[in-house]
Amino acid sequence: MFTAKTIEGIDMTFKVISEANKTCQVGVGDAATNVRENAVDATTEGKLTIPVTANGYQVTELAFFAFQSCSKLTEIVIPEGVTAVPTNCFNTCKSLTEVTLPSTCTSIGSSAFAGTNALTKVTTLNPVPYEITPYSTFSYMIVLRTDLYVPHGTSEAYKATTGWTGFRAYYELDPISAVDDVKVATTATQAQRYNLMGQPVDDSYQGIVIQGGKKFIQK
User: Fold this and answer.
1) What is the CA 87 to chain-centroid distance, rounded?
2) What are phi and psi of 62, to 5 degrees?
């Protein structure tokens, strides 16, 4: 277990998953052993951006109950690379108004957002809708008042997918433009690099990055 800071300067707890693959999870909770422990202090306020990497490890998982009852969080950004949001992960984050799910996410557990009664905006970046538990992942009342933002050209597919139906409104995100400006990054420079979600990334990140106002493919 180790601690690293988010871009907001908030201390967050991580657990190594694989030394060989240099991967880690946010928090130390474990459903199998019923370990329930927050990844950040329960009094943490405002926006929280989970980092793409922490101490050189790629963040690929969120722990069981990682943010349960963090009642002052208002916005959560989950990074590219995370594939699932586990059961009860954000349960009772009652001030949470906005959440961004990465394109790599393909699963959200039951009650993952139960009790997030202030939620009004969910953004999912995965262009392929995946089924979630209807009115359990997001409760019926939450769905009724929440807008869903989806990749360009996918709103009808989301409307037809189990668990994603019935949101207050559906909005399509603008597609990535200026493809001609995308180049392959072959050398590192001093300027900070960011992914398309605006999160700082380092040399271990693979994908499209923005540096100095230009897009690059970092391999």
Assistant:
1) 14
2) -115, 140
Torsion angle, CA of 173/178/184/187, rounded to 10 degrees? Answer: -100
Of the candidates 40, 30, 163, 130, the residue with the CA atom closest to the CA atom of residue 87: 30
Cβ(218)–Cβ(205) below 8 Å: yes
Provide the 10 A C-beta neighbour count for residue 168.
Answer: 13
- pTM score, whole prediction: 0.79
Q: What is the pLDDT of residues 46-61, one digit of tens each?
A: 999 999 999 999 999 9
Q: Could you say which of 3.40.1130, 3.80.10, 1.10.10, 3.30.420 is the CATH number of the domain covering 2-175?
A: 3.80.10
Distance CA(194)–CA(132), nearest Å, equals 30
Two tokens, residue 78: 């989950």
23 has which bridge partners?
A: 18, 58
Domain locations along the chain? 2-175, 178-219
Task: Tally Cβ neighbours within 10 Å of residue 179.
Answer: 8
Within 10 angstroms of residue 7's Cβ, the number of other Cβ atoms is 15
Show the tokens assigned to 122.
Answer: 């969910």
pLDDT by residue (tens digit) across 155-176? 999 999 999 999 999 999 987 5
